[in-house]
Structures are given as C-alpha cells and as structure tokens.
Write a sequence for this structure.
C-alpha cells in the first residue's frame, strides 16, 4: 500500500503553528521489542494475546494476556543495575533509548537541562511492591531491601531514565491511571509551549504480574468463562471483560522550531490535547460517555479541528461491556453526523489493556496510519453490538489517506485525556517512528 | 494566578488557623505512632493526624458514599477534609449538585501529588493474605483515586492529573497546576498534596537510615534524619481574571515555579546542590523576581546530613552573599516529612507566614554546623513582613521543585478567620 499522498510542511497550516513535533518513537509491546516488530505486527494484523508464560496463573481462570514473551533483560543490557530494575522500568528504558536513537537526538550536543522527561504508569512496580511488603510482614522491618523500596516508588520510572541519559530538565511522573500516557503528552506539550523546555521524552509503561492478574480477577474485570470465550474483542457483542497486557512506549516531542533547527524528521504534530473528568460517584462511568466528551472536545478545540477534519479515531475500548459502549456514545456526541463515516480502531484488541502504556500504543498506532496510509485493524471482531455501531475497521487493516486523528483514553475512576495528531511532512529520508 | 483558598489536615492542626498557630509557637507534631504496631521498626515516632480524622467512620455526610466493599481510602479522606476547607475558604460551591448547575465546572480541575496513594489498602490486602473481599479497596490504590473522589465530591469536571514524584509530589502538583492554568485549560485548580502514614515508608526509609531515632533537627550539626508524617494540604489556585471577575479575595500570587533533575543518584542528592540551585533559579526567572528580593525560604530541610548541606550550598549558589541575610526554615522540624503532602503543606506554611507576617522557626536546633551556616531561624518564630517567598521540595530521583509566592496588590487580601493572627496584630 502506498504512502499517503502529498503533505504539507509543519508550518504551512497556520492552525498548527503552536503544535509540537513528534520526532522519534520507541516501543516494547506484546509483539516484541522495537518499532520494527510493532510495524510488522500492525501490518499483518497479528494478535499479541496468548497464554501467559512468565508465571502460573494458578486458580485464576483467565490465563490469556498481552505478555512481552521471552523478554530477558540481559539480552539488552547485562549490567546488574539494569537487570535489577522493575520489569516496567526495563521496558521504559529500552523504549526511551530507541526513541532517542530514532529521533537522532545527539544528547551530548544539547543542553540536558532543556530536555524534560514525562513518564506515566497506572500501577507501577507491582512485583517489587508485593515482594517488599510480603518480606516486611514475614521477616520484619529490619531486613527489608533498600533497593526494592526504591523500586516501589513511581518516581523511579522517570528517575532511572534521567540518570541513564543524564537529562537534568523537568522530570514528572503521571499516575493518572490508564490516561497517564496521553496525559503525559499533554503536560509535556504544555511545558514545550510555555518555553520551559526544547524537547521532551514522554514514556509510559506497565508490567504484567501475578499479583495484578489476581487482583483484576478478584475485581471481576477479567472474563472468567471457558478459555475459548476469553478474548479481547472491543466493541464486539461478545465482549466480557478486559485482558491485561504490558509494555512501554516512548515518543520524543520537540518544539517545531527546535526540530527544524536540527533538521529532524517529523512523524506528526501534537496539534491539541485535552483532559476532563466524569466527576461521578461511586462508579465513574456515565453510560452515555458524558465524562469523556469534555476531553475530546477540548483536544479538538485546541487543535482548531472540526469533526469533519478527522480521518481516524484510535479508541481506548478494552472489551469491557459498559466502557466500550460509553466511549462509542461519547464519540457519537462529539462527531455528530460524521461519526458513522470515521473509522475507529481499537489497539487493545491486539495488546490487551496495557494501562498507561496503552495511550502511547494508541499514539503509535495513529502515527503508523499517518505514515503508511494503513489503518490497523480491530481484531477479534465478529458480532456487531447495537450499542457499538461505528466503523471499527474489523480484522483487516485498511488503506486510507490520514491527515488528522484523535486518540482517546479514559481511566477507571473517571479521568479522560485526548490528543489530536495532525500530519506534517517535511522531506524525510528515514522513518523515525 | 492567585491562591484564594487553603485547607490543612496535619499533625499540627486541622485548619489553617491552628496550623499557623502551631507554626508560630514552634510546636512539634511528632508523637508515638498509634495507627499500627511499630515494634521492629527503626523508630516508633511520627507526625500523625489525630485518630478521629483518619477515616470517615460513621460520619453521615452529604455525598460521602462508601466504596463498595470497604471504607474510603485514607488518602482520599484526608484530601477531602482539606479540600472542603479550601473550597469553602475560596467561597466556591461546596457540592457536586451546586457545581452541576454551574457551567464553569468544566473549567475547574484537579492536580494531586501523592507518593503512596492507596498504599494502606494494599498493605491490608497483603497482610490478610490477598482475599477477594479486600480487593475492592485496591480500586483506590493508584494515586488518581484521590482525584476521582474529589472530582465527584465537588463536581470538578475539568482536567484532572495525578503526579507522583516522591517527596516533591505536592509541590510538583502545584507546579503542573500553574501550567494548566497558564495554558488556559482551567480557571480553577485544586492542587492537592496528600500521603498517609504507612508501614511501607516507615520500613523503607528506616532501612535507608533516613529516619532519626531522636528528634528531627534540620540544619543542626547533630542532625540524624527525619521523622515521617502524614496529612493533606490543598491550595485552591485561580487565574487572576477568574478571581477578579468573581471578586474573590487572595492570599497571594503563585508567581512561578522551577523544575530540575539531579540525574545524580536515585536516593541521594547531588552534594553540590546543582540541581536544587537550578530549580530555584528557574523559579525566580519564571516569576520575574530577583534573588535579592526574596524575604523567606521554606527549605526542604529533611535533617539528613546530605540534604541540608547540599541545600545550603544550593541557596548560596543562587543568592550569593545575600544568602546570609535571608531567613530560612524547615517546617519539617515540626511536621516531620509528610512525603507527598510535604510540598503542599510547606507551600501553605509559606503562604500563611506571608499572610500573618512571621517567619516560622526551625525547632530542635541546638548546635550550629559549619556546613550549614545560614540563618535557619532557630527555635523561635520571628515577626517580619514577607512579600516574596520561596518554597523548596526535593525528592527521590533527584527530583527538584521550587515555588515562588508573592503578595498580590491587585486583589483584596484574604480575610484571616482567626480573631488575631499568630503573634498579635497583622503586619
């Protein structure tokens, strides 16, 4: 399939003068380490959901997940320091390294205090936190591990990247649930726009652990029927709950001026971001998606983009019955008559619910579509649901010319964040995403 | 933007008036910990909030609904108590129902900073063997649960972010709120810093030997680490235009902030204090203020050997010779280290010091240290007008945040609800 046709340079659309350039990307996904695997998998409509290998799910009936299979940290960095990091921080570090390399950022030639790190996670290092606490309760406070304690802090996610890359600018960790990835993009874009930094590394990560699987099963968020009926099938009538996934993604954001000055490849523009909250007790979901509408509208407003300008939606739908329907309702409310004609793809069908990482996986799927002119498919889609009646790009990737797209994420609890990405195409000699 | 409301739950008091009085009197909030059995831990002392405020209990209250299967998480509860004060203090609607009638609810947002969030629920869950009936409390494990609860309580439908940058989280929340308002994404933000006392942190900081077995004595030669504390601090921040339009009264202006990362060590500060100095410098620059104009610095001052010496160096690097003339105090000497709440509670201490015209003391100070040779306002508060003040917060990961507050001449001054400010008539 051929690339999307003629594109303008970033500055040519005056609406996007204040937009932020995306100049690099790195990813560790259930498909494997690296963006080459990611692209290959999206092109081939691969399913990253498989039986869990890393640990024995024990009595938990749901045994499928979007696991980063066969991941061995020493294959990437044999140092003790790296190998002892929590799994999600290892993912994040590798994604960050790849993003910096793909952006061809020469860190040694840049002012490290003008580069920000914006990291996001939902649950953080669950394995180390569990180990630390169980050790504390069984052995007492005198023998707990200082390293494990340090690993339990959310701040370690960004701190490790600051240390490794010697970046001395702002270092922010978002813990806004599964909106953390896109929320980190929004905070980074604000810092860039206010001139606090020239460049930002945005990274989001999540790890699959036995404890997390158990808790999700106890909260009845996972499908619990026979193995054959367990699937991540967002917006499909048969959906019965989410499947967990893991991984990390990172993107490099820069002011357009900074990107132009160093002749960077620009994969797309962050044209607008918005966040909102459902503000509803005790369970946050408005069945009509009311809590999500605010963030979508705010992002479109900031991007000066009307529903008619959008060519693609990358949705957060995760195969949970009420959540997927609410997101569809919100999209219909925001897009109006256009809703039926804009394709909606759901990357969680292939990767599972990867929490904070999911927001950046969605961004990565959107950038793939922008770059290749191929919309990744929503997998496992068979039975239409009257409550989810949009065009979900079922099962087969689709060729289309994409110039603007909207990524939306919403968290359990009611927070919602959206990002509008617009095409930008200076002449590129190499793929940076 | 301006600060138009404040709320405090702390070991020094549960409203701004008693908090300010405690700071002025140099009272210590550190007592034996009662929330759990501390045998086997490095220390059994900490700055807890009083037991009656630890959980909603049977309090029958409009809008307070129990989470299914469990009590409201303590972080959410402490934050709610402080947020109610701040919202009332600012004269905004107190309930979601009132907000619902108000179209501007979409322009009201939340930024929470917390290190631990619902860690207490996770501790109980694991201590009791991971039973399904305890799992419901884990819905409140991620720190954003505090936002979710407050958004619903007050009907704030605007942007909502949760940050967790260890010991600087409360200040980070205030800093990010600045950008949200400056970028026009919200007109009002509740900036929250909150953390509960937990076994995890008492054990963890204990094994790092950051906790003292004695009294917490910042900047003293014989300082030996901090005591842990808990609490919640909430600032209601408002764009200047929004505040003026509704004729609000302001405590002060939040003039700017600065961020930096040491990129030096995960748990130790850079001995030279370079990152800390850069955060202060950037904050002053953001506020458009000369270092020479600063009249008070609320220090991070954790009473560890490394932090206090490095922070002193950083202050000297930014202020030069003027460093010797600026009063500096660590209110952690009274509150202990309240982790995610610290940045917010210390910002509030700074604002109240400006409002009432006194410099809070550094208590437990006895022996000067040649490496810490500035004016730390030992033991006794000092009456003094303050127009420009700075509040430092540093954390794990070398994460530095500095905030600058300035008196606001354009709006009427926030009325002080006490009969008299601490120390006598207002300055």
């Amino acid at each position: 399939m051929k690339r999307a046709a003629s594109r303008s340079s970033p500055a040519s659309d005056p609406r996007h003068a204040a937009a932020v350039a995306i100049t690099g990307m790195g990813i560790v996904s259930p498909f494997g380490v690296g963006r080459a695997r990611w692209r290959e998998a999206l092109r081939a409509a691969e399913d990253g959901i498989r039986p869990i290998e890393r640990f024995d799910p024990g009595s938990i009936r749901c045994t499928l997940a979007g696991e980063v299979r066969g991941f061995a940290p020493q294959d990437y960095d044999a140092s003790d320091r790296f190998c002892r990091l929590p799994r999600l921080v290892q993912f994040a570090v590798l994604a960050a390294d790849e993003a910096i390399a793909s952006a061809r950022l020469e860190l040694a030639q840049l002012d490290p205090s003008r580069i920000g790190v914006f990291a996001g996670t939902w649950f953080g290092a669950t394995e180390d936190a569990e180990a630390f606490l169980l050790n504390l309760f069984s052995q007492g406070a005198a023998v707990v591990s200082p390293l494990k304690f340090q690993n339990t802090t959310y701040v370690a996610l960004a701190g490790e990247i600051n240390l490794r890359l010697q970046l001395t600018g702002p270092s922010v960790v978002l813990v806004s649930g599964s909106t953390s990835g896109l929320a980190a993009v929004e905070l980074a874009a604000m810092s860039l726009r206010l001139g606090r930094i020239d460049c930002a590394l945005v990274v989001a990560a999540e790890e699959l652990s036995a404890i997390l699987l158990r808790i999700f099963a106890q909260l009845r968020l996972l499908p619990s029927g026979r193995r054959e009926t367990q699937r991540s099938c967002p917006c499909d009538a048969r959906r019965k709950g989410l499947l967990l996934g893991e991984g990390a993604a990172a993107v490099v954001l820069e002011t357009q001026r900074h990107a132009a000055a160093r002749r960077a490849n620009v994969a797309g523009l962050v044209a607008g971001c918005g966040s909102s909250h459902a503000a509803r007790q005790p369970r946050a979901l408005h069945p009509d998606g009311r809590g999500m509408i605010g963030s979508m509208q705010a992002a479109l407003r900031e991007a000066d983009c009307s529903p008619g300008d959008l060519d693609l939606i990358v949705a957060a739908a995760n195969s949970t019955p009420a959540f997927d329907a609410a997101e569809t309702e919100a999209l219909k409310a925001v897009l109006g008559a256009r809703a039926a004609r804009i394709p909606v793809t759901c990357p969680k069908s292939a990767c599972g619910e990867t929490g904070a990482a999911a927001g950046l996986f969605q961004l990565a799927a959107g950038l793939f579509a922008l770059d290749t002119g191929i919309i990744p498919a929503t997998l496992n889609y068979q039975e239409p649901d009257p409550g989810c009646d949009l065009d979900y790009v079922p099962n087969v990737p689709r060729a289309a010319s994409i110039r603007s797209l909207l990524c939306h994420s919403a968290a359990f609890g009611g927070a919602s964040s959206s990002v509008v990405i617009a095409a930008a195409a200076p002449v590129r000699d190499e793929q940076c995403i | 933007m301006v600060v138009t409301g404040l709320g405090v739950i702390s070991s020094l008091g549960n409203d701004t008036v008693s908090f300010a009085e405690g700071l002025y009197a140099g009272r210590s909030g550190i007592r034996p910990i009662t929330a759990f059995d501390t045998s086997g831990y490095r220390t059994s002392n900490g700055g807890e909030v009083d037991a009656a405020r630890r959980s909603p209990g049977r309090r029958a209250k409009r809008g307070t609904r129990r989470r299914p299967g469990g009590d409201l998480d303590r972080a959410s509860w402490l934050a709610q108590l402080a947020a109610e004060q701040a919202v009332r203090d600012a004269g905004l609607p107190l309930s979601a129902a009132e907000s619902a009638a108000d179209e501007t609810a979409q322009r009201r947002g939340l930024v929470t900073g917390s290190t631990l969030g619902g860690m207490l629920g996770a501790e109980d869950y694991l201590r009791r063997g991971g039973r399904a009936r305890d799992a419901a409390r884990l819905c409140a494990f991620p720190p954003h649960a505090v936002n979710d609860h407050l958004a619903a309580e007050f009907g704030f439908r605007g942007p909502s972010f949760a940050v967790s940058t260890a010991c600087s989280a409360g200040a980070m929340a205030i800093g990010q709120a600045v950008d949200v308002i400056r970028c026009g994404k919200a007109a009002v933000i509740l900036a929250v810093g909150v953390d509960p006392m937990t076994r995890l942190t008492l054990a963890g900081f204990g094994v790092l030997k950051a906790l003292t077995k004695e009294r917490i004595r910042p900047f003293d030669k014989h300082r030996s680490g901090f005591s842990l504390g808990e609490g919640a601090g909430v600032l209601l921040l408002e764009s200047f235009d929004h505040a003026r339009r509704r004729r609000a009264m302001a405590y002060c202006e939040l003039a700017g902030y600065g961020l930096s990362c040491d990129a030096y060590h995960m748990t130790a500060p850079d001995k030279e204090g370079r990152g800390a100095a850069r955060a202060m410098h950037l904050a002053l620059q953001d506020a458009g203020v000369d270092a020479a104009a600063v009249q008070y610095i609320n220090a991070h001052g954790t009473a560890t050997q490394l932090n206090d010496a490095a922070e002193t160096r950083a202050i000297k690097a930014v202020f030069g010779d003027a460093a010797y003339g600026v009063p500096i105090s660590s209110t952690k000497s009274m509150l202990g280290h309240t982790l995610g709440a610290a940045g917010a509670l210390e910002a509030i201490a700074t604002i109240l010091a400006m409002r009432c015209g006194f410099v809070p003391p550094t208590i437990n100070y006895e022996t000067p240290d040649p490496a810490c040779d500035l004016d730390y306002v030992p033991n006794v508060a000092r009456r003094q007008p303050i127009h420009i003040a700075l509040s430092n917060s540093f954390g794990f990961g070398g994460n530095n945040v500095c905030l600058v507050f300035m008196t606001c001449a354009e709006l009427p001054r926030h009325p002080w609800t006490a009969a008299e400010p601490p120390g006598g008539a207002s300055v």
